[in-house]
Amino acid sequence: MFSDTLLTEIRDRFAHVDACPFSGPRVFFENAGGALTLKSAVETSAKFAAIPDNQGRDNPGAQALGAIIKQSKADMATFFNTHIGQFFVGESGTELTYRLIRTAVMGTPQGSVIGSTVEHPASRSAAQHWATVAGKPYISVPHDDATGRVTAEAYAAHMTPEVRVATILHTSPVTGMAIDVASIAAAIRAVAPECFIIVDGIQHASHGHIDIQSYDIDGYVISPYKVFSRHGYGVAWASDRLSQLPLEALIDGPKENWELGTRDTGAYATFSDVVAYFGWLGQQVGDGQTERTHIEAAATAIKAHEKELTDAMLFGTGNLPGLTDLAGITIIGGADNPAREGLVCFASADVPAEKIVAHLNDSGIRTHIRKADHYSGNILTPLGLPAAVRVSMCHYNTLAEVSAFLTAMKELTDA
């Protein structure tokens, strides 16, 4: 885990780290719904919200904004680890996921579209919708209920040479389990080498490094508010060959251009704040010499710290029993799952999920209920669960906060 000194420094960089502006002191275990925001991103947002100039004009203000966007795209390339393709921002991660999938499905010949049942509706709904519009069959790859994941072998069993577009979820926001994108992409290309592969990295981004260079994919999307920036925009990367498909663009406008309208310079600039934060953290925990090696060191340390937190929550800490010690508790994806990324989702046979969430809220601990609805039914319904409690942590959370959670859970189950 991080040392107490470093953890204090980390927490000091985030807004509202230990108190809600509306309800007062609280433990924030709702990071999968939206992580805490860097103070630097808050300051950057305010700075750029006040600037009246737009890009593309012949004046110093416009030129400065253009340079900031250019630098941010270079920072994105470092963070995602790719120097091909292009980055752009949009309304949200979901909106950008729809755009990439729509472009791929509508711009390819007749064939089929493949995705898995573990996916968030951001990609699954988009793929099914545009497959229907294009008259392309949709192939649904079943995930493993026991582990909360889908494998390359599962994709391979359903692949045909006619698959034109594939979607992959990098990490589930319900199970918390990471999925091996590179191996699935390889299984897809082994059968359909020209397939366009789009990845939903929204849940994954804050927990581990992104390495597009190693994935052999065509699109990757994140939501920056889930990786320490602010709401109101998403970030997408598109490969060069995806950008060569017919794009929605202004007539006689620039070719291979995903950007429509004036850009929000503040969105780009706040993502540079995120990259700078990862770089700072990497320098505290590693001895790398480049921006990329700093980011990789930060990601490795984040994974280790969060594993300590989730292990404590599952198996106990000090004299406090873990969730696995409490009667009637089911851990979604299994308690001993190496793919877990900072998230524990559980259900009780004795206490309804909404009562658990309410009790934790009353105890000053913010969690979230996942119901078997259009967001989470794909995971919970096969398990026979109407709802579950999601406890999502990030690297700025502490062992003391986990202890507070376990104390509150013990009080509830002992009552």
Number of domains: 2
Q: In the CATH hierarchy, what is the class of the largest domain?
A: Alpha Beta
Rg (CA only): 22 Å
Give the N-terminus to C-terminus distance in angstroms: 33 Å
Principal-axes geometry comes out as globular
Q: So how many helices?
A: 13
What structural class should be given to the helix and strand makeup?
A: alpha/beta
CATH second-level architecture of the largest domain = 3-Layer(aba) Sandwich
Portion of residues in beta strands equals 5-15%
On the 0 to 100 scale, the average pLDDT is 96
As laid out across the biggest beta sheet, the strand order is: 4-10-9-8-7-5-6
Domain Aminotransferase class V: 28-405
EC number: 2.8.1.7
InterPro entries: Aminotrans_V_dom, PyrdxlP-dep_Trfase, PyrdxlP-dep_Trfase_major, PyrdxlP-dep_Trfase_small
GO molecular function, one term: cysteine desulfurase activity
Task: Give a quick set of tags describing it.
alpha/beta; Aspartate Aminotransferase, domain 2; 15% strand; Aminotrans_V_dom
What would your notes on this structure say?
Its EC number is 2.8.1.7. It holds the Pfam family Aminotran_5. This is Putative cysteine desulfurase. InterPro entries: Aminotrans_V_dom (IPR000192), PyrdxlP-dep_Trfase (IPR015424), PyrdxlP-dep_Trfase_major (IPR015421), PyrdxlP-dep_Trfase_small (IPR015422). The protein folds into two domains: 4-37 and 305-414, Aspartate Aminotransferase, domain 1, CATH 3.90.1150.10; 43-276, 3-Layer(aba) Sandwich (Aspartate Aminotransferase, domain 2), CATH 3.40.640.10. The model has no long low-confidence stretch (mean pLDDT 96). With 415 residues, the chain is of the alpha/beta class. The radius of gyration is 22 Å and the shape is globular. The chain has helices at 4-12, 39-49, 60-80, 93-106, 121-134, 152-156, 181-191, 240-243, 265-285, 291-315, 353-362, 377-380, 399-414; strands at residues 19-20, 24-25, 27-28, 86-90, 112-116, 138-141, 163-169, 196-200, 219-222, 234-238, 329-331, 343-348, 365-366, 368-371, 387-392.
